[in-house]
Amino acid sequence: MSKKKKKATVEEAVYTKPLIKRRKPNRSIAGDIALYIFLIIVACIMAFPIVYAVSAALKPLDELFKFPPRVFAQHPTLDNFSDLFVTMGKSWVTFSRYLFNTAFITFAGTAGHLIIASMAAFVLAKYQFPGNQGFFKLVTVAMMFTGYVTQIPNYMLLNKLGWIDTYWAIIIPAFASPMGLFLMKQFMEGLPTALIEAAKIDGANEWKVFSGIVMPNVKPAWMTLIIFSVQGLWNNRASTFIYSEEKKTLVFALQQIQAGGIARTGQGAAVLVVVMIVPIAIFIFSESQILETMASSGLKD
Amino acid sequence: MREFFQKYFKMRAHDAKVAVKKMKRSKMCYLFLAPYAILFCMFFVYPVVASIWYSFTYYNILEAPRFLGLQNYISLILEDEIFLTSIKNTLMIALFTGPLGYIMSFLFAWLINELPRWIRSVAVVVFYAPSIAGNCYVIFSVFFRGDAYGYANAFLMSTGLIDKPILWLVNPQYMLPICMAVILWMSLGTGFLSFVAGLQGIDGSQYEAGYMDGVKNRWQELWYITLPNMKPMLMFGAVMSITQAFSVCDVTMALCGYPSTDYAARTIVTHLFDYGFSRFEMGYACAIATILFLMMILCNKAIQSLLRRVGT
Lengths: 301, 312
Hints:
The complex is a heterodimer of chains A (about 300) and B (about 300).
Chain A: H1 2-23, H2 29-58, H3 61-64, H4 79-90, H5 95-126, H6 132-142, H7 151-161, H8 168-175, H9 178-188, H10 193-201, H11 206-217, H12 219-234, H13 250-258, H14 265-285, H15 287-294
Chain B: H1 2-25, H2 27-54, E1 57-58, E2 66-67, H3 71-79, H4 81-112, H5 117-132, H6 140-143, H7 151-159, H8 172-185, H9 190-200, H10 204-212, H11 218-229, H12 231-246, H13 250-256, H14 268-278, H15 282-307
Antiparallel strand pairs in B: 1-2
Helix pairs in contact in B: 2-15, 4-8, 4-9, 4-12, 4-14, 8-13, 9-12, 12-15, 14-15
């Protein structure tokens, strides 16, 4: 597979070079330069708050309250982070417990979502059966409104099931996220049907086709589902569903520290960095796979 | 006549038999679909239906729901002034940040499309990062702090434009614009990724053909070739930005407080939180949720029919 790809890219490189040269006449140099300058300015504006958040976390306390305020730390330290761990260490629920809560919720929710949504996406994309189209339309409609609309009946339902104040209140609803099913289904439609038929002739049943042939071939879509799910669950404060201190998520605990007022300003800045670093890091590592999946994300009529 | 009916019922029965047979043959499919379908119905379909039902009742969780008819809606629209403020705020935010964020997503995806590969992937990270950076928007409360230590105030005071600090996040005059700016900053989300990916997937030979037919500059190229090719992604992006634009609440709650001064930064969702989770008037809160739901669905349908005309 990879050999073929390499060959194709080599051929493409030979083939596309003249194309790019011939596209040039459509572009004026002045326009190009102006656009690039514009892009750079906007990129700086977009990046500034995040860069600032990181630099604020590195500032010692006296610099945080300097007048006039500066953007970059003059004497960067990691004091804020160590302070944060000291504060967390003193709370009666340990830091590792909060971390475990969030990690467990994120991991279980993402794994379940990946398996359940892929199973549904597989049959929706590759089989014809009564109710197929209708169900998928329903899922796309579900993408059109926010979770806030359904929050109150959701709470009552979870309450009836007895899941309030357990991890399941966050994990199980995350399984059914419509976005993951949508992206997975669109991506699976691009798989050649011949692949599946060949496996069936060889005597594989549906489950074997799914686990042995379809799933290994949609790895880019896995990554996409994983990042969207992790992003949602990692940042989930879960404050309405979980109220026992020992089950609270890391983000919630960190925000409690952040709300501690002016004495915690330095630690608050460190909290911001800790919270945002995970989704951004995952995105950076899986960017190419995510873009590959998103290429088939279009909503057809 | 009898014969006709007999024939008709025979045919119906036959159709039903065929459907049942088909369903039996695709039993595997239903088994695969079942786990997702059950959870989806539990957490997405049922709550919407339940929310519509509760919106016609008075329900405070302790007592059984009491049927009220349209009373909740009537008092929402005629008596609840704060709700009207919240609708006004939500619509203002949605009308401003929705289309602008959507256009920005497309514009930047399109502009970075022709950059060399590695610069492009850096640019995608830079533009996309704000929307996944957790609660990083809290940092704006430092920029717009009400005292002289805030960056905006410090800057304006050092240039001499103002002589005393402005209470950016307490003064109703400045709240909404600041929230809108922050939301715009975060608006390059999933739709943006979809656009970036879609633009890379467009077949280069179409541009070649376009040049032969006399496409002169990048704007003509955009309208006649790029946009029609991007239609499915445009639809997807529209769904994403509408959903985002109507569900603003985190940013306003974090920056302007909850409740905010004079309710100047109250949105429909924060109003929903107020009635649902502070006052436990679930029926009333469900009426708010239903109105929000209808607004979002209708807006989506309208935008989709508009987008179908792109490039034609």
